[in-house]
Description:
The protein is mainly alpha-helical and 368 residues long. It has helices at residues 18-22, 25-40, 46-63, 70-80, 86-91, 96-109, 117-128, 167-183, 192-206, 213-228, 238-243, 245-256, 263-293, 304-315, 324-331, 335-347; strands at residues 149-152, 159-163, 322-323, 351-355, 362-365. The strands form two sheets. The protein has a three-stranded antiparallel sheet.
Amino acid sequence: MGKWNWQHSDWPNFTWDRQQIQAYLPSVYHKQGYVAGLVDSLNGTGTLITKALTENIVASFAIEGEHLDATVLSDEIERGFGRASSWDDAKSVGILEGNAAALISNVFDKSSQDLTLHRLGIWQRCMFERTCSPAQIGQPATWRTEDINVVSGGSGDRRIHFEAPSPSRVAIEMETFLNWFASSREAKEIDPLSRAAWAHLWFATVHPFEDGNGRSARAVADLALFQSDKNAVLYPMAPYILADRENYYAVLERTQSSGLDVTEWMNWFFKTLENALDGAITRLNWSVEANSLVTMQPETRLLTQQVRILVLLHDDADQNVISASQYAAINSVSKATATRHLTDLVDKGYLCVCEGRGRSTKYRLSSK
């Protein structure tokens, strides 16, 4: 019996502590239901979806040490998401952000389509090709032809963290995986959340590509979640995986080298999924509150421009203070009007003055 999970004779028949994992399901399902209720109470979620998609793919690339321009990416997603031609539009940009937008849009815009060699081929080209000719569209994925070892250290203290199946096995391994992914969608033996956890681990273990396996594994898990819950687009796991990156790799390594028991991996996956759901609930609760601010009684009602700024300050980690000049630029109003709007928000308890005086006054969210 070899060291790695895929070397076991029962591979890929994973086992796990069912009682331990089943304990997570009520909480996760409850939070999914809460998200659905919040979504139903909103007039629309287009902006929230664009932001979530952007955060998702930015974080997934960052886990691998690759930086994406979030502003450019958000524009590309907004332009292409929800249209059948999103791949064609984004590929013509010829930049990493355009292709990344095509990748994440394909994951969440085509949940009804099976995961196939051709679909994986699109994802693969999105990750690594800056331009794409018409002849390449629809080409299947290209499996790796080299051995893959995940190692660290130098020649004196080299450590092998993982050794993937040999290239000669990849095609049959992926055929088995893709058949399982299709059939398990309606299977009674495995719940949708455990299916997503398995899919992530299984794909990452086969390691079918020369590069991009982690990003693809996370996209596969996203697709699995989205196939069972259309609101999954609003609770991306990648930002929370990035925040726990070291532990993510450690749990993955231990699972891949400790037989076919995947209990630890599934525990980690469910906890991370709950963190993602908690983050989505916080954001959606604020969006519901923001929507109500423009429909209150006249004496307490806020202007659309004011709500726009409150949402920005609440939802953007890089924009936690605002000046009258910034308010004026964002809302296309005069600086005098911006000052009046900001003063009104202070009077109503939504903002407080945090620094400066006169023209240099800065405002931030109050604790209201």
